[in-house]
Amino acid sequence: MTAYTTVLFDFSGTLLRVEPAETWLRAVLRETGTPMAEDEIARTARALEEAGALPGGPAPRELPAELADAWRIRDRTPELHRDVYTGLSRRVALPDPALHDALYDRHMTPAAWQPYPDALEVLRELRARGLRVGVVSNIGWDLRPVFRAHGLDPYVDAYTLSFEHGVQKPEPELFRIALDALDAEAGRTLMVGDDRRADGGAAVLGCAVHFVDHLPAGLRPDALRGVLAAVTAPA
């Protein structure tokens, strides 16, 4: 068995899960003091989810042609990320146009994210075994405050975020940057993610890859523990 020295993790759908669309919408309505009938909240939340407006949630059921090019590279800059997701949100009628930006802003807050039940346990154990840990994410904003708020940050040695480098998974360059930040060898690194295409890109460099399912946190209580079974302490 390979004696791994390093584990790289994806963010959304791997270590943490974004809140459900209805919870997301309710939070923004509450924060902005915007009234909406109960049946309208449920209907609007479903429409936003189908539109793909919640970052970290389901992809758009139908991607508008005018957003197709930007969608493919949305994680390369903060501006693209916001423009794409607020563009998707604007396909759904809301009582105040300002709510589209408010919804986007909400998803960047720690309250919008829930760690998977075993995330802290697994990160803590990896640190105890002497392995280095990195987070490699396709994202348009700084997720470090989310990790700090949920107590995960002390167990992460480096963050490699697409918007900070202008490249995104599965491009090998983003994984190479992550490996360099941790002084890691690809052949002794395990990449953990939920997206077989994006996260599987690490295999091009020689990293092993371990996949988990992108499920609600309550339905995936212990999948990350499989990472512990896949690694051994460095020799």
UniProtKB/TrEMBL annotation:
Keywords attached to this entry: Hydrolase
Domain of life, per lineage: Bacteria
Enzyme Commission code: 3.1.3.-
Gene Ontology MF annotations: hydrolase activity
Keyword Hydrolase: yes
InterPro entries named in the record: HAD-like_sf, HAD-SF_hydro_IA, HAD_sf
Gene3D superfamilies found in the cross-reference section: HAD superfamily/HAD-like
Protein's name according to its UniProt entry: HAD family hydrolase
